[in-house]
Give the backbone structure.
Amino acid sequence: MKDLNGKNVVITGGSYGIGVEMARAFLHEGANVFTIARNKEKLDASVDGLSGHAQLGRKVKGFPCDVTDRDGIKSTIDQIAAEFGGIDVLVNNAGIVIPGYFEELLLDDFEAVIKTDYLGSVYATKAALPHLLKNKKSAVTFTSSVAGIKGVFGYSTYSPAKFAVIGLAETIRQELKPKGVQVTVLLPPDTDTPGFEEEKKVRPKETDVIAGSAGLAPPSEVATAFVEGFKKGKFLVNPSFDGKLLFRIRSISPWFTDFYFDMMVKKGRKAKG
């Protein structure tokens, strides 16, 4: 979708981090942006900050809702479409991370991540699709992760959910392409967000060592790369060098990526003592 001027863009998980930077990038393209997040206080603060980036005559507004509430997300998306004359782009960005050792994690942890990261995308997409199909051209996007192309130590709740997001996107891309709906998936690396800072406090040392070899990306750069790739009609947007390298090597030699990750795990165990 090359021309975003005047388009109505809905972003879930849009109150901070990559989501709010996506909103800013879409506003700079001349779009109307409507963000959805469960924390009203953070949502209101983010909308106040975004208002100055909206172009003349364009709108930015926040709607408090949890994507795991399938009735609530449908009502919220229907409200946006009715109030602002439809929806052109849905950005499924809401997500959570609960790291830890598989044997120590609770079943509730797995359910919480799959409900937010995967089912939240299903609920929002199902709700938005009737509105998207009213346009000759529209789009739906998903935020997966580099951890969605390779299972990572300490992310047994997170990696499978992000794998599922890619599988969903691959499937509906085939189904919706003839109907004029573009599908794009973002594969962000570790990104410097408030959520990541909280994640680092509790994730295993082995995970730190694996992630530490890749570095940390600014959310504004990730969002800019995403919008640029989205405008070009790309299916996968992989903004980091390390993410691109992992994707390429894993497709050529899965054995080598397993060998490398095993080395990093051993290094992390030694560091843990």
Residues 8-272 form a domain with the Rossmann fold fold (CATH 3.40.50.720). The two ends are 51 Å apart (CA to CA).
